[in-house]
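agent> Task received from the user: take the single chain below, predict its 3D structure, and emit structure tokens. No templates, no multimer pairing.
agent> Plan: (1) validate residues, (2) run structure prediction, (3) serialize to tokens, (4) report one or two observations.
agent> Step 1 OK, no nonstandard residues flagged.
tool_call: predict_structure(input=
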Amino acid sequence: MGIGDKIGNAAEDLGGKAKEAFGKATDDDSKVAEGKADQSKADLKNAGENVKDAFKH
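)
tool_result: status=success, residues=57
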């Protein structure tokens, strides 16, 4: 996994957490869901990168 991928995935995860927190603060369920979806995408990308790394070694 390249450092750029790690940074991008971490940024997407943090952005998702921020959206979720904003949605909770403003009582906006769609923002909460959007934030959770962004976090899930980041987790899936990390998992995919980990699988690729496992096959490289």
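agent> Step 4: summary for the user.
The helical segments are 3-25, 29-56.
agent> Done.
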